[in-house]
Amino acid sequence: MTADIQVTRALFDEVMVPNYAPAKLIPVKGQGARVWDQEGREYIDFAGGIAVSSLGHCHPALVNALKTQADKLWHLSNVLTNEPALRLAKKLVDQTFAEKVYFCNSGAEANEAAFKLARRWALDTHGEHKNEIISFAKSFHGRTFFTVTVGGQASYSDGFGPKPGAVLHAEFNNLDSVKALISDKTCAIVVEPIQGEGGIIPGDAEFLTGLRQLCDQYKALLVMDEVQTGVGRTGKLYAYMNYGVTPDILTSAKSLGGGFPVGAMLTTTAIAAHLKVGTHGSTYGGNPLACAVAEAAIDTINTPEVLNGVLKNEQIFRECLQAINAKYQVFSEVRGKGMLLGAVLNEKYKGRSRDFFLAAAEQGLFALVAGTDVVRFAPSLVITEEEIREGMRRFEAAVQQVTSA
Fold first, then answer.
1. Which phi-psi region, left, alpha or beta, contains residue 6 (left: φ > 0; alpha: ψ -120 to 50)?
2. How far apart are CA 12 and CA 1, in angstroms?
3. What is the model's pTM?
4. Distance between first and last Cα of the chain
5. Which of the four pLDDT bands, split at 50, 70 and 90, describes residue 359?
6. C-alpha–C-alpha distance, residues 251 and 103, integer Å
7. Where is it chiefly localized (predicted)?
8. Residue 225 bears catalytic tag
9. pLDDT band, residue 376 (cuts 50/70/90)
10. 254 is annotated as an active-site residue
11. Does domain 73-301 have CATH number 3.90.1150.10?
């Protein structure tokens, strides 16, 4: 019986595979941008489950959608379709460049589908020679073996044997480095509009426009990984809308489900046609529960009130960080857009992002890192000003703790 199990952090070490090293605390309840642990201690959440909890914890629209659907239908398999999946797909198509949608469970799965589709499209339309994928150093596209190889961080892909081939890495925001690699063998360029795990590095408008032009010139597909930037995180439904650069394939997850696992790959009718029946699939992809929650998330987020609120919240974050930095001189700049921001540590504190992350938790604040030099913030899109300012008070206490140690 579950009542007999003593749930402590020590139980993790006893029963879980040791690929994670979670904090000592165990959260048990969340509401909005606040979380409580087993001891009843309250935290402000600036991490958002790593840019996932787009509407905070237990948002009524998502709770209602889940409870309502839970009484109707949970799972069917893809031998049958379902109403929530079709409604969600229609809304995504109507609000983006896309004409077709494929559903899965995560960002990695969405990217896996995108890369397979790009390869199949190239094979069908141009032949076997056109199979190279160009990605970027410091990029991150998931943890499957294909996606982690396309990702530009060898430490994640080394040590598992031979990697998938025909994957090249250019330098982000350096168009000349792409020109040096691209050829008639290139089937796709894969890019994050803002590099997330790589350090919250926004793509330059000229760079992304240049990628689009190179793809057109070499008859390659532009794949935008919007797993972290999508669904309102930058103040637009998808970040590509900030740049006026339209991809051929877009991947989405994280904020799409507001905490419920769901992913999507969006593309055009012509490109989608190359994933014929049987060429790809997902047991749980497009299940009614996930799609009902994601539909509620899209309906709630894709409004002028929420999207404009994201940009207003960004300004409050920046003002607070600027005030903290004026007192403690720890950051060289704050990068990012909307509710995806990175405070870059200066030379004096370089390599110590984890120290700030740990100190923040001690002060009652959940934050993130993006590499060793960047403290990352990816909170709820609808976090209140009061929650932001209270969280920043706690973050200032953490900064004081680190700088005075």
1. beta
2. 18
3. 0.95
4. 46
5. very high
6. 10
7. cytoplasm
8. yes
9. very high
10. yes
11. no
